[in-house]
Design brief:
With 252 residues, this protein is an alpha+beta fold. It has helices at residues 13-23, 33-49, 56-73, 93-120, 144-157, 175-187, 205-220, and strands spanning 5-6, 52-53, 140-141, 193-194, 224-228, 235-239. It has a four-stranded antiparallel β-sheet. α2 (33-49) packs antiparallel against α3 (56-73) and α6 (175-187) crosses α7. The longest helix has 28 residues, at 93-120.
Length: 252
C-alpha cells in the first residue's frame, strides 16, 4: 500500500523560498536566481520522492522561478533615446514584493501565536520551580522544510542516497500503526524528545521513511508539534496539550 501525505496543509511555495533565503543567508532584495531555482527544484524532487503530495502552487512557482532566471540571462536591449540613468525593471521585483508581503504576514501570525503560547504554556510547574534550567524554555515551531533538512541529513549520514531508498511500500507496518507508536512514546515524555531519537540506528530505510511520514501526518492532525530553542538547533517533538484525535486515519 502506498502512502501519501499532503504537503499543502503545512506550507506553501513562498514558505519554501523564504526558508531557502534564510538557509543561504541571502539578501531578499538580491536573490541569486540560479542558486535558488536549483535548490527549489531539488526540494520538489525530494518531496515527491517521499510520496508527499505537492500542491499545484509549487509547480507554478517552479515555472515562475525558471522564467525569471531565463529573463535574467538574456542581454538587456538598448532602445534609441533611452535615458542612461533609467534602469530596466528587475525581473525579480514582483517576486521580491510578494515575499516581503508574505514575510510580514508570517511574522505577524507568529507573534500572535507566541502571545498565545506565553499565556498558556510557559508557567513553571511547582515541582520544577527549583533548579530546572529548561523549565521556562520557549521553543519556536519549525517548518516542514526544517524537518525535511533534518531527515535528509539522517539518510545522508547513513549513506542511503540511491533512488531505491525513497520508494515507500507499507506492507508490514501501516502508517496508523506507526502514528500510534509515536503517540505512545511522546506521551511518556511530556517535555518532548529529540527528533533523531525517532530514527534509531539499525532501522531500515522503509522504517525511517514511514516514521517521517507519520510525524508529518501527526503534525497535520495537531497531535504533536516540532520545536527548536534556537534557529537550526535541536528539533524536539512534543505532544500538544488538550489535543485529542479520535481517528488516526491519514485521510481524516
Amino acid at each position: 500500500m502506498e502512502c501519501t501525505v499532503r504537503v499543502k496543509v503545512f506550507e506553501g511555495p513562498l514558505d519554501l523560498l523564504l526558508h531557502l533565503i534564510r538557509k543561504n543567508e541571502i539578501d531578499i532584495h538580491d536573490i541569486p536566481m540560479a542558486l535558488i531555482t536549483q535548490q527549489y527544484l531539488e526540494y520538489l524532487k525530494w518531496m515527491q520522492a517521499l510520496n508527499l503530495e505537492v500542491a499545484s502552487d509549487y509547480l507554478v512557482m517552479a515555472a515562475t522561478l525558471v522564467h525569471i532566471k531565463s529573463k535574467m540571462l538574456l542581454p538587456k536591449p538598448m532602445e534609441v533615446g533611452e535615458d542612461e540613468e533609467e534602469e530596466d525593471e528587475d525581473p525579480r521585483a514582483e517576486l521580491v514584493q510578494r515575499l516581503l508581503e508574505y514575510q510580514r504576514y508570517k511574522e505577524a501570525a507568529q507573534e500572535l501565536g507566541r502571545r498565545e503560547i506565553l499565556g498558556r504554556d510557559v508557567f513553571v510547574r511547582p515541582s520544577e520551580a527549583s533548579g530546572d534550567e529548561d523549565a521556562e524554555e520557549v521553543f519556536g515551531e519549525v517548518s516542514i522544510f526544517h524537518l525535511l533538512d533534518a531527515f535528509h541529513r539522517i539518510l545522508s549520514e547513513r549513506r542511503w542516497q540511491d533512488e531505491e531508498a525513497l520508494k515507500v511500500e507499507m506492507d508490514r507496518v501501516s502508517l496508523a500503526d506507526r502514528i500510534q507508536e509515536i503517540a505512545d512514546l511522546v506521551s511518556r515524555h511530556p517535555r518532548g524528545i529529540p527528533f533523531e531519537v525517532l530514527f534509531p540506528p539499525g532501522s531500515s530505510r522503509r522504517e525511517l521513511i514511514l516514521t517521517f511520514l507519520a510525524l508529518l501526518e501527526m503534525i497535520r492532525l495537531r497531535m504533536i508539534r516540532a520545536h527548536q530553542a534556537i534557529p537550526y538547533g535541536t528539533i524536539r517533538i512534543e505532544g500538544i496539550p488538550g489535543e485529542h484525535k479520535s481517528s488516526l486515519n491519514p485521510d481524516s
